[in-house]
Amino acid sequence: MKRPIEDEESSCASAEPTESKQAKLASDSNNDAAVAATGNTRNCTINRRRGDVKKAILMLMYSGSGYYGMQRNTGFDTIEGALFDSLLAGGHITEEEYLSPGKLQFQRASKTDKGVSALAQVVSMKLNLSDADSLKADVNSRLPTQIRLLDVFRTTKNFNCKARVNHREYAYICPSYAFASKSRPIDITYRIDSTQLELLRSCLSRYKGTKNYYNFTSDASCNRYIIDFTVGEPFEYRDAEFVELRVRGQSFMLHQIRKMVGLAIAIVKGYCRLEAMDAVFTYKRMDVPKAPGLGLLLNKIHYGAYNEEVRSQNWATQLSIGIGLKPSEIYRGETDNRSMLAWLSDAHYASRMTFDRHDLT
After folding, report:
1. Cα-atom radius of gyration of the chain, to the nearest Å?
2. What pLDDT, on a 0 to 100 scale, did the predictor assign at position 12?
């Protein structure tokens, strides 16, 4: 059964300035100062009265190229940094809230690393939703073009977009030549054969279940549950062939997926044996190669039962809008920049792909 959206109580009218009204006046004053501080000459169109501020879900799509990840980090360009800059410039949040996002009950559904993109990132925070369409249009007008606010809508008062996630799905878009035998010269016209493709599927299937990812991260809590890890049929974009790897899991750690892909590449290319898939899931430290970040994409965030509660918002439609990001940013980025080609050509990374025999005992 759907839970009703919980309203916040509105203050009763009074002839005298009450504490709540004084607080409101102070908030408006802070808001005006924040708008002035950003050089925004537009009048703030958002009324910051408590009764108008509700918990909201924001759906974002972005290309991570040129950004140092999702999370705000002073001195670095990040996705959240650009979002908060746009919200402040438009008068949708105060300067105090900008500096202390906890006052907005801000939460992100998933972190993404440097260079990683997303078709469907979700954040939740308290915003004035009296005119959600205008808010969306205004924020998009201020965001860089490679970051888009797909939708913003009201949710339940206590919704936490991170805590309510059932599982996350990432895709890794990879040129087929990454899986060619190490004995072959690197050739961008390479087309993967059925033998290499089946070996890749065998590698990826070994990630399923609960494993110890000690060798894939510096995180102290390194056990993770992977629901599945698959690869689709090869397809062409421009003159190159690609395969799309998809992994679903409850949660992922920093660099985990890129190292999962890096190890699979090392095995399929013949730098190490398939037994390495068992050896790495121990507490014996091994140096696992990390694939480039460009191909990694946060594909979907699954909320399970909560999806039923917000079905009327038609998340699937919003996700389909985001599909256009793949060819325009991921495929084109690889064909133009050849990040995988540069990684494979780097002698440092090539040396890390080889495991000594004693590592596998």
Report:
1. 23
2. 33
CATH topology of domain 167-360: Alpha-Beta Plaits (3.30.70)
Quote the tokens at residue 165. 């996630």
The DSSP H or E segment spanning 57 is strand 53-62
Digit-coded pLDDT (tens) for 298-350: 988 888 766 655 544 555 555 545 545 555 566 666 767 788 988 998 755 55
With contact defined as beta carbons under 8 Å apart, do 273 and 318 qualify? no
Q: Which residues contact 243 (CB under 8 A, 6 or more apart)?
A: 174, 176, 179, 192, 197, 200, 231, 232, 233, 234, 235
Binding site residue list: 170
Shortest CA distance to 101 belongs to which of 83, 75, 113, 114? 83
- The domain limits of the chain are 21-154, 167-360
- Please state the residue numbers annotated as binding site for substrate: 170
Contact between 236 and 242 (Cβ < 8 Å): yes
| CATH fold of the domain at 21-154 | Alpha-Beta Plaits (3.30.70)
Beta strands in 104-179 (DSSP E): 107-108, 117-128, 147-154, 167-175
- How confident is the model over 62-99, as pLDDT tens digits? 988 889 999 999 999 999 999 999 999 999 999 999 99
Catalytic residue ranges: 113
CB 354 within 8 A of CB 272: yes
